[in-house]
Amino acid sequence: MRVRVAAYSLSILLGAVMVTALIFMVTDGATRAAEADGQGQLIFEQKCQGCHSIGGGRMVGPDLKDVSSRRDRDWLISFITSPDTLIAQGDEIASQLVQEYGMEMPNMGLSKEEATAVLAYIETQSAAGPAQKSEEETALTPVLISADTGMGRDIFTGNIALRNGGAACISCHNVNGIAALGGGSMGKDLTAAYSTFGEAGLTSVLKPVPFPIMKEAYSGKPLTDDEIAHLVAFLREISDARQEPSTSSPVGFIVIGIAGFLVIAGILQLIWRGRLSGVRQLLVKGGSR
User: Fold this and answer.
1) CB burial readout 65-75, b (16+ within 10 A) else e
2) Which residue, 40, 122, 231, 242, has fewest beta-carbon neighbours within 10 Å?
3) How many Å apart are CA 235 and CA 153, to the nearest integer?
4) Close Cβ partners of 3 (under 8 Å, ≥ 6 residues apart)
């Protein structure tokens, strides 16, 4: 009898130990998953949110909702960690993305573990469905009603200095018709930036400044919300003007060219008239001897 009681007690004790271990494993796994998700969220907000959304639509880069179902997981990890390498190798998908979005994804210096955490966070958010925009995400959209395209042009060219001391956009970028000598060539030509990225995409680039060169140039010198709104309005105007069909006629250029030639010929005739008459007189005198 005592042996049965002891065996029964031992089985209860072992069962309790196993249940406790199972609960610990489940809890520990959930804790680790939460920590990984938290790490992925932090990395996404710091390094990805400026160009990508999860269910919010296309921005500077593609919407990443359900990206794991559209791309191979190993390819995604490779592209997140070393996009420049895949692009340089002529990877077909990477090349298509560059062609579609007009720029290369910068190397953000993420490790494989960090890329895995980001991808896990994207998967979690994709499964959760669309969520309401946070205050930070809402702040990415400038109020263009009060924006001034003229001020945007002056901010772009540097006629109006940036409030926090950042460099003028024209130092690195150009747009059609901005100046006789144009702008800088280090950065991308922004003539078609608004039509390519839209309001939200441009704002996302200007506010968090996600690209390495811009991040270094504007470190501690961020653009203000009103400066961003003015610049976006200016780039919208430039983009609209670019898309308008030209109303000028080639006949007008021909007429202007002929008129210019006649004017120049007349001026030269007046300048050389006296010298040519002198030479003619000498030839006539010489011939009469």
Assistant:
1) bebeeeeeeee
2) 242
3) 8
4) none
Q: What is the pLDDT of residue 61?
A: 85
Please check whether residue 194 lies inside any domain of the structure: yes
Q: What angle do CA 232, 236, 237 make, to 5 degrees?
A: 120
When the pLDDT of each residue in the chain is averaged and rounded to a whole number, the result is 75
Alpha-carbon gap, residue 6 to 195, rounded angstroms: 80
Highest mean pLDDT of the ranges 83-87, 105-109, 264-268? 83-87
Residue 49: which CATH number? 1.10.760.10
Confidence category of residue 29, pLDDT binned at 50, 70, 90: very low
Say if 276 falls within a structural domain: no
Domain range holding 230?
149-243
**Model pLDDT for residues 222-238, shown as the tens digit of each residue:** 888 898 899 999 999 88
First vs last Cα of the chain: how many Å apart? 161
What kind and span of H or E run contains 220?
none
Model confidence over 148-200: pLDDT tens digits?
A: 889 989 998 889 998 988 888 888 888 887 765 567 777 778 888 888 777 87
Residues 115 and 184 placed together within one structural domain of the fold:
no
Give the single-character DSSP code of 223. Answer: P
User: Is 204 contained in some domain?
Assistant: yes
> Residue 22: CB partners within 8 Å, gap ≥ 6?
none
Query: Do the beta carbons of residue 206 and residue 139 sit within 8 Å?
Result: no
Cβ within 8 Å of residue 275, ≥6 positions away: none
pTM, 2 dp? 0.52
Q: Is there a domain that residue 268 lies in? A: no
